[in-house]
Write a structure and sequence with these properties.
four-stranded antiparallel sheet
Length: about 200
């Protein structure tokens, strides 16, 4: 299990099967600290950290404990701008977000060799990938110009499918957000209706 804890600052945590816990701190993490977002079947962990200026940077912690830090090209260098790794699949592909100097979110997919492919969902003002599965299919949410959220699925080839859950609201800060996709293509997420009430959904392939 990988996650985060907060004391004086954020520290990533890795809990082994036997219950033992190892703290994870990226080498260049500052006062904001380190957040571990995802762990794959091999035990590699992906996440992000904030430096002393609260600029965000992605990291990959290998099974042997070595940590590689990385930034997406085009990521901003202001406070709470930068690169956030959100998910790692069993082959070491990482999906995440980079926030540019104007504060807009964009998606990226990083291969095991460290090369990043950047992407934006169609008609998106903000693109927020959340999960990449074993087939390199990415699920997430896009925010349009009216600040309505829509789910998206990005295929291995880079094509997009966008969708809205039944009953999802169409007002600002309402709509559909995909948060997870399994290896069979089943998507789970939330939708906010026209009364600002949250509901869960499962989308079948």
């Amino acid at each position: 299990i990988a996650g985060g804890c907060s004391t004086d600052r954020l520290h990533g945590v890795l809990r082994a099967k036997d219950g033992s816990i190892v703290e994870i701190d990226a080498p260049d993490s500052g006062n904001y600290g380190t957040w571990a977002n995802s762990i794959n079947d091999a035990g590699a962990v992906a996440g992000y950290y904030g430096d002393d200026n609260t600029v965000l940077h992605g990291f990959l912690r290998s099974v042997d404990g070595t940590i590689a830090e990385f930034d997406a090209a085009g990521a901003g260098t202001g406070s709470f701008q930068g690169t956030m790794a959100k998910s790692i699949n069993k082959s070491g592909w990482i999906a995440g977000i980079y926030i540019d100097s104007n504060g807009f979110d964009h998606g990226f997919l990083r291969n095991p060799n460290g090369n990043l492919t950047k992407f934006d969902a169609p008609h998106a003002k903000f693109t927020d990938p959340e999960k990449v599965n074993a087939g390199r299919v990415v699920a997430g949410a896009l925010l349009d110009k009216a600040r309505v959220s829509h789910g998206f699925i990005r295929s291995k080839s880079g094509s997009f499918t966008t969708f809205d859950a039944p009953g999802a609201g169409t007002g600002s800060n309402q709509g559909t957000s995909a948060y997870d996709i399994n290896d069979s293509g089943v998507v789970a997420g939330t939708e906010i209706d026209g009364n600002d009430v949250n509901h869960g959904f499962i989308r079948m392939p």
